[in-house]
Structures are given as C-alpha cells and as structure tokens.
Amino acid sequence: MTRVATPLERRWRPDGPLDVTLTLSPLRRGAHDPTWRAEGGAVWRTCRTPYGPGTLRVTVDAREGAVRGQAWGPGAEWLLETLPAMLGADDDAAAFPALARNAGNGAEVVLRAHRSHPGLRIGRTMRAFEALVPAVLEQKVVGREAWRAWRWLLRRYGEPAPGPAPEGMRVFPEPEVWRKIPSWDWHRAGAEAVRARTIVNAARHADKLEATAEAGRDGSAAADRLLRALPGIGVWTSAEIRQRAHGDPDAVSVGDYHIPGIVGWALTGRRTDDEGMLALLAPYRGHRYRVTRLLEIAGHRPPPRGPRMPARDYRSF
Questions:
Q1: Is the whole model's pTM more than 0.90, yes or no?
Q2: What pLDDT shows up at residue 16?
Q3: What is the 3-class SS of the chain, one letter each residue?
Q4: Which domains does the chain have, with CATH numbers?
C-alpha cells in the first residue's frame, strides 16, 4: 500500500465574495489540462514553484466563509504562501462600479455582468514562464490545436504531480527541459518550428521573467517590455501572460480572434475590430481585461458567421 505524505494546510478568509473556480479558470488550458482539474468540489493545480514541483488542492468551507488549501511536494509551502494572491487577494475592484457607470456605451451591460459574478477576481500566479509556454502554443491557432500540443508536451516532459493528485496530472517542466526538447518532439506535439523557437528562446530568459512576476501588478509594465523584446512575442501574447502571472486587470488581449467581436457586440450590438475594441474600452482603463473577462463569462458573443476556423495538425506536414 502506497503511503501519501501528509499535506501542508492553510485556511484563508477572503475579504469579500470569491468564486474559486471562476477565478482560477484562466489557468486551465482545455478540458484535459494535465496541470488543472476540478473534481469532487475541489480545484487541483500543479505548479513549478521556485522550490520545485508542487500540487495544490483548493476547497471552500461555506460555513466558515474560508478557503482551505492543501499542498504537497517541495513547493508546498510556497503554494500556500501565495494562495491568497492566486485567488485575487490583491485585486482591487472597489472603484470599478463607479468607473463603469460613467463609461457611456454599454455601461449597464458591464455593470450587470459585474453584479452577476461578484466572486470573480483577477489572481496572480507569479509564474511567468509557466504562463508563457501555453500562450505561445495558442498563437494564431484554434484552442483545441494548442491544448493538444500542451497535453502532449506535459505528458512527455512533465513529472508526476506530488501527493494524491487526480490520475494523469503533471508538473510543468523546468526551463532547461524546454530548451532541450528535440525538434521531432515539437513536431509530434503539433507545434511548428516558429512557436517552438519562441519557447526555447524565452526559456533562456526565464529568470528575468520570473523576477518581474514576483513584483505582481507593479511588475507588469516591465514584463511587457521584456516579453515584447523577445522574438515571437507580441502584444497579444504579452497580455495573456501578464493577466495570469501578474494579475494585471488592464492587460487587454489585442489581436485576439474572438474578443473584439465580444466587446463590440456586448457594448454596441455590432462587431468591431481591435481599434474599435480599444476605443470602447478606453473609459475602463485600468480594468480593460476585467471588462473583457466579465463579458466573456456573461456569454456576450455575436452570432456565428461563416465556417469555424479549422484545427490544423502540423504532425502531418
């Protein structure tokens, strides 16, 4: 019989409404992400912490109004120490309703979404390279194509999750491992050479990226400059990373295939492009990512038009 190590534990009471699953869901990369699982009323997450691999299990005690974190592995203590930040303890949305009321077009739509999801917070993981790899894999492809590559690479190169994690969960590999993945395995995963090179090059700068992430939202601007100086990383990828690693509520994903249409449709009843989206979001500066997130989860999507973008399979090229 295999013995499971006793976890470290922490209880934390948020200072307001908190929807744990909704807040952590941006960290999930597809329905079968090996690093994220919602099961039995708990959210499980694995992480490559500064001290090594760790597994985190998060549950909510509704009677006490407290979050319970349990963690295993060398990174357990770090995961529990940073649990409040990951769940948005530093996310200050107090001024957001007043800002939205004065925003003009579509303000009531945004306020209604905010009222309907009071537990949404913008959390920060403080793990920039861990956010970078899946963001690069998602560049200019449909989600299911990127998520397939993410699963393949994690199952191949990630290590088993410490503790009693659900079967199949894996831990994000170290930067040095990403640097040494051979070209044929990138091909097997379905990631073409351009995205592979971007990840391999970024792995060489992982320490600098993590230093900006430790500064949280205050390090977001520095992270944006560093990220966009790396070949293959532009404004969209930088925003996707900073939303998760830095908890930046203003890091809007310019260049996204869906978000301009969502914003335009929700606020004006018409589709728009990136330029139009930024104009509509301008009154919400400081919270532009928060607005796009609220509109997404509220289901404000324009009706489908034309065929869906097909998933390519680079393994057959």
A1: yes
A2: 93
A3: CCCCCCCEEEEECCCCCCCHHHHHHHHCCCCCCCCEEEECCEEEEEEEECCEEEEEEEEEECCCCEEEEEEECCCHHHHHHCHHHHCCCCCCCCCHHHHHHCCCCCHHHHHHHHHHCCCCCCCCCCCHHHHHHHHHHCCCCCHHHHHHHHHHHHHHHCEECCCCCCCCCEECCCHHHHHCCCHHHHHHHCCCHHHHHHHHHHHCCHHHHHHHHHCHHHHHHHHHHHHHCCCCCCHHHHHHHHHHHCCCCCCCCCCCCCHHHHHHHHHHCCCCCHHHHHHHHHHHCCCHHHHHHHHHHCCCCCCCCCCCCCCCCHHHC
A4: 8-91 (3.30.310.20), 92-317 (1.10.340.30)
